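Notebook entry, structure prediction.
Reason for the run: the old model in the group folder had no record of what sequence produced it. Starting over properly, with the input documented here first.
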Amino acid sequence: MNILVLGGTRFFGVHLVRELIKQGHKVTIATRGNKVDEFGDRVNRIKVDHANFIEMKNAFLNKKYDVVYDDIAYASLDVKYALETIKCDKYIMVSTSAVYDLKWDTKETDFDSCNQELIWCNRDEYSYATTKKQAECALFQCYKDQKFIAVRFPFVLGKDDYTNRLRFYVENIIKGKEMKIDNYNQQIGFILSEEAGKFLAFLADKDFCGAINGSSDGTISMEEIASYVSKACGKTPILSNEGEEAPYNGVPKYFLNTDRGKQLGFEFTPVKDYIYDLLDYYLSQIK
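New structure, fully documented this time:
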């Protein structure tokens, strides 16, 4: 297939492109050109600012793709600029679990993008959760004739995680820094960046339209993570209300129901099959 990836030069986007290339697709990546990628002559490249409608219109004039992956649709106007400038058979947007009021066994139907007020906005006008909700609202309400998928991921983990959220806990324990953690015992969900990319690539030829969750099987708590790190480095976590705010604070006990993905044939990896190796990696990196 002829596939366009908007983004694709960092984190799970890199894994998506790797998987698409591996599967033999013709891949074009479209970015602002600020980051050197690893793909050499295995991909085509288009330099464009996704947030600039005129640039998008000029860049994709007379072009057509079987599938467009939008890794960087953070707001409703991003969706508008993509779908009103690019011709494609299927549009796959990376969304987020932040659209939900998270709870145990969160299903796709727990956020209905069709029954929300649509606000045309840019990504810097509201919070991340709000702009992502609006991106979905634009997609579901204004482009009903377009085949599309909105893929809702939880927190994404990996050695390539530029947010360093999980690393925060490891580093603060090793260095004896105080942390304020308000959900220490709560079980929460994650997905590995490599698996997020593979799941996105898996959806390219699937006969599915709508929202779909992508998440590792099972959950883990910050207490379990801290306990593992503590035993590995011999340091006790220091929890304090005066400590630095932990990155996953405010997240309640939850997991994302992934039955839709499993029914399509995708097998999600249990979180505990990889998270301890990832913690070992951070332990080896932090002195």
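Summary: The first strand starts at residue 2 and ends at 6.
The old model has been moved to the deprecated folder.
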